[in-house]
């Protein structure tokens, strides 16, 4: 295995060089061996701005207005628009500007962007040509800043800085903007050291005399600069020559764009291979190899590295700990990327913990597919704007690959470990494996199950049966009026919606507010004494005769279409209950990032469980049931939403999760109150387990599997963790040292220290890693406390309101 380990190490170094080593090396080279050039701010050659367009009616008028306002002498500046067979109003808009001497060139048929540029360059007589996209708006001084570098006769092309607008509005925009900021640094250093690698279709300029007609399959802003470098000229990057454009704003569209760029760029490199020859182009060869070729093939490198990691772990070689940890990191990357994919589809992917891994995975996959297509002889040379819709297969491919990669990684992590564990360490590994599976393993296994076994019901958007919205409240004066207004404004036929509020002995003015809304159609059930939520719910259900009931908390505000989305599933008689997606609004609490990450996992699990037929427990803040399937739980039931929904699932009905039925819940509780809430939930879970209500039996193996994986192991996680710590401590005292277990114990001690520090120093909770560790320890202690309360039966069933 020694030669295998050496090869693995070299491959690891190559990947590290591509992403970390090259930028560091380039920064040093640019500082030590900088190549200056002549810059003349008064240099004014003749310039033609060529704008490439295909179906750009949405932005073309704004682009042409912007181009006419650029600060460059009119007598030395001309504008040409190349419309590549546009079928919308692009051409008509350009013709409206004919009096301003803007020319429209249109090929006889759609041939691709490069063919259009070839045609345009035959009619250009200016000294300099600037290439631009229709959605790129230039700074007024952009042309001036580009052309001033051509005063140096060694400069053949100049690349400007495309800045992304609104890059922080979507996860895809944030990811692309972050990546682009990194790319801009590389461009600056490359320009200082030798030549910037490639142009930018949004803003770059060349000496017109250096243009060579390109093949239709060439990507002009890459092949053309390569040809210029091969002739002995330089390429300069000028960050002051800038334009703005909108990012794709969508991971799938960005995926397709990157795939097309990698495909065409790799094809372009094969057309100008001499640019990889250092004897021909000098320093530039290193930059081209490191910045482009390695990046395009990084997906292949990662795949080989992942496979070698699993082989090394399976054979349990000398680098066993390293193989294990690296494969674990791979698995974690795949899992987080899978959650990023899910949240992107939900439209709320704002967690860097999820969307950065997803972006990294997606960009490597897109480059790999682009290169594979070229190796098969296929080149994507016809373009489309990122604003156009993409085929459904684009959305499904990344998820399918992630499911396979994560599941294979999980199996290889577990199986070799089990085969090599010593008998004395087996109890500790069982406990550690249970914790790992409960929090990180189950989501991947569930995603694989959902891919193989998913239910498909008869979903009807126009299905609107008689419906009761039941709100159970206790001392909710601070939010009840907002809740009633929100409920009355929901998009559901008023003659089919009954709004019923059950007040469980409220004493804070809630009842007075409720009485004001009786005249507006709200029905109320005022209970004289506070007996607990389940008693109030059972009492209210006696007066409900509608086919469906939606149960809601008073502090959760529904999106306008939430009810329609929930009930649309009940058109299928197999559906017994549907749970919605409640999003926490928690910007003002110290542990918000950790909580958002935790619920990101939870929503993913709920969605995949619903896809396989049953969520393990509905969300009490928003779920709908068939009235006929409701079975009143005992009055001292703590987890009413879990028991009610699971009793329906245990009857064989589907318990689905609807991502489109959205509610918003404001959480203002600091960690101490959240700890009490979690502890109460787990005590309720132990209560259901002891009583067996809503707990699936052996006759329903899939439901039982999900219950054990999602709920039972989570409820008992505190017991499992602290039992593991005790066993590990005893083993250390007895001298039975296992490297992995010793490392885990050390990590647990360090993590506990970090969590303790965060508890006493709240500002530390703003650090991402500390926040997650602190929140996880809160969950473990809440689990321990909840199990103790549940076993002793000491958890009160009456309400304890959160801080609002």
Structural overview:
With 804 residues, the chain is an alpha/beta fold. It contains 26 helices and 16 strands. The strands form two sheets. It has an eight-stranded mixed sheet. It has an eight-stranded mixed sheet with strand order 11-10-9-12-15-14-16-13, sandwiched between helices. Helix 2 links the parallel strand 1 and strand 2. Helix 12 packs antiparallel against helix 14 (393-420), helix 22 packs across helix 26 (768-792) and helix 24 packs across helix 26 (768-792). It is globular and about 90 Å long. 47% of the residues are buried. The model has no long low-confidence stretch (mean pLDDT 90).
Q: Tags for this entry?
A:
804 residues, alpha/beta, 8-stranded mixed beta sheet, 16 strands
Summarize the structure.
The protein is an alpha/beta fold and 804 residues long. The chain contains 26 helices and 16 strands. The longest helix is centred in the first third of the chain and has 31 residues, at 2-32.
């Amino acid at each position: 295995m020694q030669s295998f380990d050496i090869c693995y190490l070299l491959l690891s170094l190559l990947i590290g060089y591509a992403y970390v080593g090259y930028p560091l090396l380039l920064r040093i080279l640019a500082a030590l061996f900088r190549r200056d050039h002549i810059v003349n701010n008064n240099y004014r050659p003749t310039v033609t701005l060529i704008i490439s367009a295909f179906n750009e009616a949405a932005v073309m008028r704004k682009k042409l207005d912007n181009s006419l306002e650029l600060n460059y002498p009119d007598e030395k500046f001309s504008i040409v628009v190349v419309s590549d067979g546009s079928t919308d109003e692009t051409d008509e808009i350009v013709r409206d500007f004919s009096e301003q001497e803007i020319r429209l060139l249109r090929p006889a048929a759609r041939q691709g962007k490069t063919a259009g540029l070839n045609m345009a360059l035959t009619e250009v007589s200016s000294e300099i040509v600037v290439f631009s996209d229709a959605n790129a708006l230039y700074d007024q001084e952009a042309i001036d800043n580009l052309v001033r570098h051509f005063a140096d006769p060694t400069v053949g092309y100049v690349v400007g800085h495309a800045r992304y607008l609104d890059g922080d509005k979507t996860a895809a925009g944030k990811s692309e903007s972050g990546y682009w900021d990194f790319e801009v640094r590389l461009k600056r250093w490359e320009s200082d050291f030798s030549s910037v690698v490639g142009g930018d279709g949004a803003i770059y300029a060349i000496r017109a005399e250096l243009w060579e007609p390109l093949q239709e399959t060439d990507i002009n802003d890459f092949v053309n600069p390569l040809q210029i470098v091969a002739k002995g000229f330089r390429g300069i990057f000028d960050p002051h020559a800038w334009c703005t454009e909108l990012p794709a704003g969508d991971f799938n569209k960005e995926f397709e764009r990157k795939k097309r760029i990698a495909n065409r760029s790799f094809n372009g490199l094969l057309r100008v291979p001499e640019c990889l020859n250092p004897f021909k182009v000098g320093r530039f060869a290193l930059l081209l190899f490191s910045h482009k070729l390695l990046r395009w093939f990084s997906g292949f490198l990662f795949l080989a590295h992942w496979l070698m990691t699993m082989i090394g772990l399976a054979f349990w070689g000398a680098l066993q700990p390293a193989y294990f940890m690296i494969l674990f990191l791979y698995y974690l990357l795949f899992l987080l990327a899978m959650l990023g994919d899910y949240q992107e589809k939900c439209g709320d992917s704002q967690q860097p913990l999820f969307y950065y891994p997803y972006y990294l995975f997606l960009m490597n996959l897109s480059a790999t597919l682009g290169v594979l297509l070229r190796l098969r002889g296929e080149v994507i040379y016809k373009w489309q704007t990122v604003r156009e819709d993409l085929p459904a297969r684009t959305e499904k491919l990344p998820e399918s690959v992630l499911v396979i990669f994560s599941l294979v990684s999980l199996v290889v992590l577990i199986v070799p470990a089990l085969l090599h564990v010593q008998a004395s360490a087996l109890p500790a590994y069982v406990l550690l494996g249970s914790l790992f599976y409960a929090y990180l393993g189950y989501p991947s296994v569930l995603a694989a199950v959902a891919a193989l076994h998913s239910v498909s019901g008869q979903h009807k958007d126009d299905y609107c049966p008689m419906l009761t919205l039941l709100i159970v409240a206790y001392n909710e004066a601070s939010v009840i009026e907002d809740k009633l207004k929100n409920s009355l404004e929901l998009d559901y036929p008023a003659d089919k919606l009954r709004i019923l509020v059950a007040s469980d002995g409220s004493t804070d003015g809630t009842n007075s507010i409720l009485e004001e809304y009786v005249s507006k159609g709200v029905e109320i059930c005022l209970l004289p004494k506070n007996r607990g939520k389940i008693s109030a719910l059972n009492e209210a259900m006696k007066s409900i005769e509608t086919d469906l009931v939606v149960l809601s908390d008073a502090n959760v505000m529904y999106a306008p279409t939430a009810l329609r989305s929930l009930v649309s599933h009940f058109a299928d008689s197999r559906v017994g209950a549907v749970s919605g997606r409640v999003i926490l609004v928690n910007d003002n609490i110290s542990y918000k990032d950790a909580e958002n990450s935790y619920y990101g996992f939870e929503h993913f699990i709920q969605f995949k469980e619903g896809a396989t037929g049953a969520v393990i427990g509905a969300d009490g803040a928003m779920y709908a049931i068939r009235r006929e399937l409701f079975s009143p739980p005992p009055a001292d039931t703590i987890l009413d939403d879990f028991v009610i929904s699971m009793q329906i699932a245990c009857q064989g009905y589907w318990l689905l999760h609807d991502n489109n039925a959205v509610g918003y819940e404001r959480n203002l509780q600091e960690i101490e109150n959240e700890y009490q809430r979690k502890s109460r939930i787990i005590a309720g879970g132990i209560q259901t387990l002891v009583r067996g209500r809503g707990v699936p039996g052996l006759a329903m193996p899939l439901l039982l599997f999900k219950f054990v994986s999602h709920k039972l192991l989570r409820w008992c996680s505190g017991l499992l963790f602290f039992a593991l710590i005790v066993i590990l401590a005893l083993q250390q005292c007895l001298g039975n040292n296992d490297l992995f277990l010793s490392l885990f114990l050390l990590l647990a001690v360090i993590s506990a220290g970090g969590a303790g520090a965060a508890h006493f120093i709240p500002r530390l909770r703003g650090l991402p890693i500390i926040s997650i560790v602190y929140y996880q320890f809160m969950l473990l202690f809440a689990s321990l406390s909840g199990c103790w309360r549940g076993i002793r039966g000491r958890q009160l069933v009456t309400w304890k309101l959160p801080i609002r």
